[in-house]
Design goal:
This protein is of the alpha+beta class. The protein has one domain: Beta-grasp domain (Ubiquitin-like (UB roll), Roll). It is built from two helices and five strands, in the order E-E-H-E-H-E-E. It has helices at 24-30, 66-72; strands spanning 2-7, 13-18, 50-53, 82-84, 97-101. A five-stranded mixed beta sheet has the order 2-1-5-3-4. The longest helix has 7 residues, at 24-30. The radius of gyration is 12 Å and the shape is globular.
């Protein structure tokens, strides 16, 4: 199992354990983690699952693809540690990962 901690926009932390091979977005949705939307169902077409990877984990989560970068470039809230949570697949190497969520835009 892989532990992931989600820190929401109010600084409330929630830690869950999930099986490897699941995306950060799917793990959040199946565990009722707030502030992660999945308008496209996790196929990297909407950017609704935009999150910030904790700085200590940026190098371990890999780099965004060209498509992901394109979607993130449209986000006013983009930061250097921005990722789409549907594009980060959990593995044993990411055990302890910390993700910061954003309050969904209206």
């Amino acid at each position: 199992m892989v532990k992931v901690t989600y820190v929401d926009s109010a600084n409330v932390s929630r830690t869950i354990e999930v099986a490897p091979g699941v995306s950060v977005m799917a793990a959040a949705r199946s565990n009722d983690i707030p502030e992660i939307e999945s308008d496209c169902g996790g196929v990297c077409t909407c950017a609704a699952c935009h999150v910030y990877v904790d700085p200590d984990w940026v190098d371990k989560t890999g780099t965004a693809s060209k498509v992901e970068n394109g979607l993130l470039s449209l986000q006013e809230t983009r930061r250097p540690n921005s990722r789409l949570s549907c594009q980060i697949t959990l593995s044993e190497a990411l055990d302890g990962l910390v993700i910061h969520t954003l309050e969904p835009e209206e």
